[in-house]
Structure formats: structure tokens, C-alpha cells
Task: inverse folding
């Protein structure tokens, strides 16, 4: 790849030999339609709706197999192999995809614009250029002032894109496709590891390690090994509710102590980073600072039941209850996995309310199976090993995603030119 100066166009600087065209010049838009309820009511069709497309990846995850007579009124657009389907509803979510051979002559929602490439544009290049910030910015400007975040067909037609020579388009798509393949491979490894973890949790947290005799627990409504107990969270350790230092006092903020809110609890087992940090003065305003390895559980709001562990001394806001495990009773890693495993049951403790909430007094009564401490640690070690693999794979995927973003910024603007085979 090489650097090259270019000329300024309506959509930014680009190489001299690149053209700027509108989508209607490069593609045919919404060429064919049919009504499955009339034309083939008793035949099965594959129906692609907005939810079928994974945002930002170009992949159709799961089309719905339905009878023609069951097709909704939006199921009208015909798609063919190598068409690009572009969601016109909230296009900034990037629900765009390349239609593979398996979906040839099937149906998608009228919430998509179906783009059939003419001879001078390569389909996969078009997909990548639709993902570019230059195109998304145009979409956002067109939607400004509208009551509904969507584009109409005439607006789609006027979107401007850079158009390199066809061999260069193919090479750009090939390079970005290689990175995409690597991202998909890592994604597959993540999915298989998550399935492994789920199976191990089901086995270890109900049957334990090496047990042959079991008993029925009324409290848990399930069998557990004879040697295990059942304990409420209040018996496992101290349960505390977080508190937010005053946001009007600047001396409390921008320190070094993590201030954990539900937003900071993501896929990782530990909370490594937070959006905000407090000073020692700020920590003095809360009841107590949490030690390393406190178990955190979201008990208010839409993400109720999410669980994590403190990586260092921290404080939380009032949406989070924390368990500081008694070291002679419970291993915090085991408690983290046991609560995560019973996540759906825990959510049911919130009842039916506009804002879900599990009161501290009720949270303290939540029951877990409790093996002897050495077995807790062995169970936690096995599951922690799987989590470490998951963490490694997620970081690999994040790194590849950053590489792809950088390449797109360079290649789709012509700031870096690809070398073509001679």
C-alpha cells in the first residue's frame, strides 16, 4: 500500500482517478417485489427482517423460515445473490448485508433498500463503503428534522460514494474481507467457549465435583450433593448498597478510586475500568469502600442481575448491591458464578414494576448452594480458566476490529492505495 495526494471532492479528498457517484448511478434500487401471501402462499420462504442482520458486520444471522401466507405486510422486497440490503431505518446502526447464494430470490423487509450493483461497482466494495463514516454522516444529515429516523428511496439514491477503478475496488474488498474473516473466526471461538462455559456451569453448580449421593433441596427446588448446604447471601458475607458522592462537589471527583455503575459492568468478570473515579474525599462520603474481590450485583434498572467482581478497592452507586464474602465461609469467585448461574431467578425477585428493583432486604435472602470451601475454590478455578480464555478471545476481536476500522479509514478514502497485480 502507498500514500498518495489527491483532489478535494464533495465528500472529502480522494485520488485523481477516483470518481464520485451517487448510489442511483452505481446501482439499481429496489428492482423487484412480490407478495408471498398471493403468489406462493403454501410455499416456505426465507424472510429477512431488520433483526436478521448483525449491525456493522455485513452478516445475515438468522432469516425466518415462514409460509408465504404467513408473511407480514412488510415482506415484499425480492433479493438476489450479491445484492446489498441496506436498512433505511436508523441506518447509523449499520444493519447492512451482502446477500449470499442461500438467500437468492428470497424476501426481505421494505425496511431495507435493495441495491443491485451495475457493472462498474463490486458488491463487497459497496458494502464496505456503506459502512464508512462519510456515508453514515450523509444518512444522518438527510434524516435531520424528520419525525422518524429513516431514509426514503429518493434519499438513498442521492447518497454519494467514492468509486475507484474496478480492480482497485476488488483489492480493497479483498483486504478488508481478510480481516473480517479473522474477526468471524474469533467470534466463532468466543461462541464455542461460551457454550462450554454454560455447560460447565450447569454441571459444576448443580452436581459438583466427584459426588455420587444427592439430596433434594426445597429451598432451591432441585437436587444438590449431600455434602452441600444452602445459604442466604446474608450468611455468606456482608451485603452493602452503594452510594453516590455529591456530584456538585468537584473535590469528590476525578480521583483514582473506581466509581462503579451498571454501565461499567460488561462481559468481563472483573471491573477493570470505570467511566468515573472519585477522590479520597469522595470515598469518605459513602458508608464504606469495597475491598478487592467484592461481588457486585445490579439490583435496580434495566440491567438488573448483571454481576461482576471488584478488581481493586472501589465504590458503587446505589443501583448495585455488593457482597463482601466472609473468607471462612465463601469464595468470592464461586459466589460470582453461582449468582450468575441463577441470574433469571434473581431477576424474578424484582417483581413487576416500571423500574425493576430488588430491595436489599430481599436480596439478602437470595439462596445459593454452598459446597465446602475447598470445593468452591476448585469449581471457581475451572470456570475462571474458561473465563480467561474468553477474555483473551474478546481482546483479540477488539484488536482486529480496531485494525479493520483503521484500514477502512485509509483504504476507502484513498489515503493509502493498494498495489494491484501486474
Result:
Amino acid at each position: 500500500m502507498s500514500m498518495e495526494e489527491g483532489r478535494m471532492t464533495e465528500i472529502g479528498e480522494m485520488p485523481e482517478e477516483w470518481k464520485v457517484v451517487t448510489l442511483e448511478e452505481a446501482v439499481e434500487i429496489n428492482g423487484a417485489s412480490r407478495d408471498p401471501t398471493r403468489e406462493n402462499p403454501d410455499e416456505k420462504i426465507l424472510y429477512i427482517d431488520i433483526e436478521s442482520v448483525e449491525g456493522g458486520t455485513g452478516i445475515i444471522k438468522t432469516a425466518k423460515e415462514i409460509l408465504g401466507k404467513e408473511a407480514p405486510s412488510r415482506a415484499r422486497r425480492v433479493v438476489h445473490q450479491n445484492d446489498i440490503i441496506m436498512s433505511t431505518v436508523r441506518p447509523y446502526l449499520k444493519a447492512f448485508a451482502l446477500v449470499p447464494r442461500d438467500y437468492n430470490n428470497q424476501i426481505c423487509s421494505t425496511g431495507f433498500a435493495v441495491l443491485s450493483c451495475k457493472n462498474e461497482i463490486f458488491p463487497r466494495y459497496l458494502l464496505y463503503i456503506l459502512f464508512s463514516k462519510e456515508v453514515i454522516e450523509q444518512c444522518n444529515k438527510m434524516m435531520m428534522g424528520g419525525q422518524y429516523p429513516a431514509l426514503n428511496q429518493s434519499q438513498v439514491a442521492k447518497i454519494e460514494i467514492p468509486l475507484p477503478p474496478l480492480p482497485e475496488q476488488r483489492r480493497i474488498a479483498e483486504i478488508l474481507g481478510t480481516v473480517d474473516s479473522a474477526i468471524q473466526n474469533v467470534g466463532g471461538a468466543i461462541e464455542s467457549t461460551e457454550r462450554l462455559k454454560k455447560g460447565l456451569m450447569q454441571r459444576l453448580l448443580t452436581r459438583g465435583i466427584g459426588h455420587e449421593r444427592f439430596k433434594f433441596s426445597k429451598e432451591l427446588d432441585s437436587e444438590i450433593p449431600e455434602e452441600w448446604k444452602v445459604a442466604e447471601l446474608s450468611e455468606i458475607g456482608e451485603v452493602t448498597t452503594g452510594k453516590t458522592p455529591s456530584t456538585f462537589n468537584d473535590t469528590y471527583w476525578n480521583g483514582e478510586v473506581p466509581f462503579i455503575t451498571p454501565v461499567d459492568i460488561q462481559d468481563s468478570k472483573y471491573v477493570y475500568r470505570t467511566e468515573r473515579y472519585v477522590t479520597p474525599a469522595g470515598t469518605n462520603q459513602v458508608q464504606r469502600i469495597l475491598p478487592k474481590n467484592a461481588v457486585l450485583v445490579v439490583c435496580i434498572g434495566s440491567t438488573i442481575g448483571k454481576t461482576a467482581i471488584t478488581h481493586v478497592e472501589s465504590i458503587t452507586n446505589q443501583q448495585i448491591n455488593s457482597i463482601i464474602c466472609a473468607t471462612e465461609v465463601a469464595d468470592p469467585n464461586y459466589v460470582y458464578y453461582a449468582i450468575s448461574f441463577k441470574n433469571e431467578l434473581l431477576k424474578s425477585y424484582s417483581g413487576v414494576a416500571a423500574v425493576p428493583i430488588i430491595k436489599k432486604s430481599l436480596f439478602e435472602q437470595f439462596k445459593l448452594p454452598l459446597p465446602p470451601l475447598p470445593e468452591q475454590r476448585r469449581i471457581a478455578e475451572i470456570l475462571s480458566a474458561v473465563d480467561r480464555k474468553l477474555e483473551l478471545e474478546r481482546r483479540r476481536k477488539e484488536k482486529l476490529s480496531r485494525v479493520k476500522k483503521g484500514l477502512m479509514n485509509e483504504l476507502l478514502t484513498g489515503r493509502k492505495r493498494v498495489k494491484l497485480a501486474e
Summary: The mean pLDDT is 93. The longest helix spans residues 166-207. The chain has twelve helices and 28 strands. The longest strand covers residues 253-260.
